[in-house]
Specification:
By secondary structure, the protein is of the alpha/beta class. The protein is built from 17 helices and twelve strands. Strands 2-8-7-6-5-3-4 form a seven-stranded mixed beta sheet, sandwiched between helices. A five-stranded mixed beta sheet has the order 1-11-12-10-9. A hairpin with a 7-residue loop joins strand 9 and strand 10. The longest helix has 23 residues. The two termini are 18 Å apart. It binds pyridoxal-5'-phosphate (PLP).
């Protein structure tokens, strides 16, 4: 045990030194800032905005006071609540350049370079997951919209019409992210038959229960058409049994969607490839670069195995768009999402991936996996009751093992929030109140975990 602990800590320290490359030094930031600013400024004539304008200093002071200080600091390494993101610095320069140049990234005709860049990021991600052939996707604002696009695509591919909703059955586990049920409601598909499949004692969807439900629904004259697995649940970070759900999807001809908003980019690690095995058999999947790729908020991605289904569900045209239609070598984002005009999101992802290379991202993810194991072992040895062994980087723990200690745990959570050094969130599963640590900020290192312990 002690030996495991010291080899784990030495692995964590080695990973930390590579993961820390994602945090440029002040000098590096200045070099990048100057290079990006002069590139941006050189490209435009300056304009004079003096009428009723302000010096920038008071505006920055205002931001410091009213924006920076109140609320949860999601950029801090001490943020271990919900699903942390972080926001690596290089991404902000990508956003800056995207805003300065303001290329119209919705349509290939308007900015072939921007659309090609976004599609190349989607291809990179699809290949990582194990998709081959003619897949396509969209860079979205986050996982909620990415899941919305996937569900709308499934509906269109399976030719489900509104009048048929009451006979259509959709399956997901009790631990599905609430944005999925919200998306279904937005799409009007809460009128379908929604089946919450029970989970096993470690909170994975029970595939035997799924198959029993599908087959009894068929017997009742329903049409099972969509199953949604979660690759990294928000409550406990466990991955539904992706291979088994793939088998059932194939057997019953279901559209198989995997919500990997939290867990998806762990595919960059050896451990992630094992845990996520089977995701490559899905018809569509979602990942959130603003979670497991450490980008600032505002980056999700949906990928669909067959590009035609994505396009059929989302493309639209108008007489004033006729010039653009002749240029369709690449799928345009506007034909793959509800958006027409959109932020050029690709640049905030492309720039840091190219600046750092993939290595520190992989190290950072491995470091977080190791930190979760480390925290799990340590908190257990302090006498806390724990949830499932971490499959990714979320750990549930509490004092006592039944609902009679809920109040004591609530009190611990309140004290932690009051203390403010480390932020964690909580959850309730079947009436049991859990303290919950989610390790995913790129700035979280072993010293934060030690402070917390
Ligand atoms: C975070 C999350 C979502 C929602 O994504 P947003 O980017 O917050 O819109 C959906 N599913 C899972 C599993 C998540 O972790």
């Amino acid at each position: 045990m002690a030996d495991n602990r010291s080899t784990r800590l030495s692995r964590i320290r080695t990973l930390e030194s590579t993961a820390r490359l994602l945090e440029p030094t002040g000098d590096e930031r200045n070099t990048w800032n100057n290079a990006a600013c002069s590139f941006a400024v050189d490209s435009f004539h300056s304009e004079d905005y003096s009428d009723e304008g302000s010096d920038i200093e008071p505006l920055l002071e205002y931001l410091d006071l009213h924006l920076h200080h109140p609320g949860i600091n999601a950029a801090s390494g001490g943020h271990l609540g919900y699903v942390p993101g972080g926001g690596i610095y290089g991404a902000s320069l990508g956003d800056y350049l995207a805003a300065v140049f303001n290329r119209y990234a919705g349509i290939y005709f308007a900015s072939p370079g921007a659309v090609k860049m976004e599609n190349s990021l989607i291809r990179w991600t699809g290949n990582l997951i194990g998709y081959t052939g003619n897949f396509a996707g969209n860079l979205t604002s986050g996982g909620s919209i990415a899941n919305l696009i996937a569900i709308a695509t499934a509906r269109s591919a399976k030719q489900i019409r509104g009048m048929d909703y009451p006979r259509q059955a959709i399956y997901f586990s009790e631990h599905v992210h609430h944005c999925v049920t919200k998306d279904l409601r937005i799409l009007g598909m809460d009128e379908c038959v929604l089946r919450e499949i029970p989970v096993d004692h470690n909170f994975h969807m029970d595939p035997a229960a799924l198959e029993r439900q599908v087959s009894s629904d068929i017997d009742q004259g329903l049409n099972p058409f969509l199953v949604i697995a979660t690759a990294g649940t928000t409550d406990s970070g466990v991955v539904d049994p992706l291979e088994k759900i793939a088998d059932i999807s194939e057997k019953y001809d279901l559209w198989y969607h995997v919500d990997g908003a939290y867990g998806g980019y762990f595919i960059l690690t050896q451990h992630g490839r094992t845990v996520l095995k089977g995701i490559e058999r899905s018809d569509s999947f979602v990942v959130d670069p603003h979670k497991s790729l450490f980008l600032p908020f505002g980056s999700g991605m949906v990928v669909v195995r067959e590009s035609r289904f994505l396009k059929n569900a989302h493309n639209a045209t108008a007489n004033y768009m006729q010039d653009a239609e002749a240029f369709d070598e690449e799928l345009s984002p506007a034909d793959a999402s509800p958006e027409l005009t959109k932020h050029f999101r690709g640049l905030r992802m492309w720039l840091p991936l190219r600046l750092h290379g993939i290595k520190p991202f992989r190290a950072c993810l491995n470091e977080k996996l190791e930190l979760a194991r480390y925290f799990y072992d340590e908190v257990k040895s302090q006498g806390f009751h724990t949830g499932p062994e971490p499959e990714l980087t979320i750990v549930l723990f509490r004092k006592g093992n039944d609902a009679s200690s809920n109040d004591e745990n609530r009190k611990i959570a309140r004290e932690l929030i009051r203390d403010g050094q480390i932020f964690i969130s909580t959850t309730s599963i079947n009436g049991i109140y859990w303290l919950r640590v989610a390790i995913l900020s790129f700035r979280t290192h072993v010293h934060h975990i030690d402070i917390f312990l």
